[in-house]
Every structure is written in C-alpha cells, then in structure tokens.
Amino acid sequence: MSATSVGPRFTLPVQFDPAKHGRTIYNDLMLKKHFPKLVHWFALISALPFVLFGCLGPSGGPVAVLSSAVVSGSAPLDVGFNLSFSTHLEGRAISFELDFGDGSVPISGIEFGIILHHTYEAAGTYEASLLVIDDNDKSDTASLTITVDDNGPVEGIEVGNTAPDFDGNTTDGGQIKLSDYRGQVVVLDFWGSWCEPCQNSMPHLDDLVTQYGDQGLVAIIVSTDVYEEDTIDFLATNGFTQFISVWEPGGKHGNPIDLKYDVTFYPTTFILDRQGVIRWISIGYPLQVTEAMLESLL
Prior knowledge:
single chain, Glutaredoxin, five-stranded mixed sheet, 29% strand
C-alpha cells in the first residue's frame, strides 16, 4: 500500500497494518490535539513553587500576633492583649500601635513582653488591630474580634464563633456536655484509629495535657471509628488515659458530632478558650497546636 497523507505532519507507514499501526497513529493524533494544553499545564505546574513562595514564603519582615485569654463577655469587659508572640524574622527592632477598635486612643510602644489591658464599657462587637513596624518601615498587622455581650459570639464553627454545644457518650461508659467545660481551655479533636496521621498526633496531644492539665487544659477527642471497640483498644494499647474520649455511632459519615462541626479531614482540631469560643482550627495535623498557642489562653 502506498503512503497516504494524514494531515500536514502525519503519514501512514508504507506497509500499513491497521492492527499494528492504528494505535500509534491515534496516539500521535491525540498528542497533536492535546500537546498545547500539556505545555500550558506544564508551565503552570513549573511556576507553582515560585508563585507559592512569593505568596506564602517568609518576607524577612515583622510578624504581628495579637492574642488574649478573653475575647467575649458582659460589659464592662476587661481584655488583656498579649503582644509577646510578635517578632521579626531577621531580629530587627520593632515597634507597635494597638487600636482597640472602640474609638479610644490607640497605644504605641516598643515593649512587647507585656499584657495591655483595656476595658470595653458598652455592648458591641469590636475589631482590635495591631500594627507592627520595623526600623526599615516594613510592617505587618493582626486583628482580634472582641464581643461584648451577655450571650457571647454567635454559635458557629468558624474562628471567633461560640463552639456548638453537644452531648456525647464517653468510651468509659459516661456522658459529657461540651458546655460543662466552660472555664477551661478545650482541645476538641476529631480523629479515628483508622487514620495514621491521627495516631501519630496522639502522643503530642497527650504531652500537652500532661504539661498544661493543671492549668485548666482538657482534651476531648471525638472518635469516628465505626466500632467503639477499635477506639477503646487503640487508647488502651498506647496508654492514653488523660483524654475525654467520646464515641458516637455512624463513623466519619454519620457521627452526629462530626456532622455538626462539618468535619471532612482528619484529624481536625478546634481550640476553645475558657468562654467556649473557637480561637484556632488546625486541619490535618494537631502538631500545629503549639505551646505558645495554648499559653496565650491559659
């Protein structure tokens, strides 16, 4: 069979065998069709590290961190603002301006290792903001929402919300209610013995409870195991006895507490302050729950 032209760049072999050469031609044609797209995606993927580094990488400038053990309550509400976790990535000198968000005069200074108290006299929601500036005019900002209200922040599952209350059965045969732990700092961890990152994170959570339990820290771990026995066996085998272990039927697709908090990745960890307000959420690895994070609340 003589060669037959197929398009401007593809030619059938002189001895064309459909069974042997048909797939080769098809692959060539598909490559021609999709090659521009492949080049486009390859360029995007190649550029991704540079994009991420530009957006998320360290800038070498100041880092503003604003925290407080109290962010909600009845008027008048005294709030102690902690600036001590602010820093500079290159160790340069930094100064601050703290605006309380209620129309009062902001406070400026250079001493970060202190607690600055401010009293909110009237009910309302205020956005306190911290501006940190270095001696090269680089700056960073942080903010903290203060809710002055008898009922506290609205209930929800975002940072700044009051954590949704729930009742749960514990694996030692008891029952708990989340709101019973108001007045304590709560690590609320959604996990499962089937989940390897969850297993790996348990020693870290156990160490945190050992270190801060006498200061008011409790860890409530909500299991998504299908069978309660799996949860009990894992905790017993590894000697984890300090947790408040909760199990409800349904696994990760039907556990009512899990559904209430809309958890889809495991482990997911919520940090609640003494007023029951969600202050941090860690998705995927509770090792992100640091000592400094907890000390700002205890």
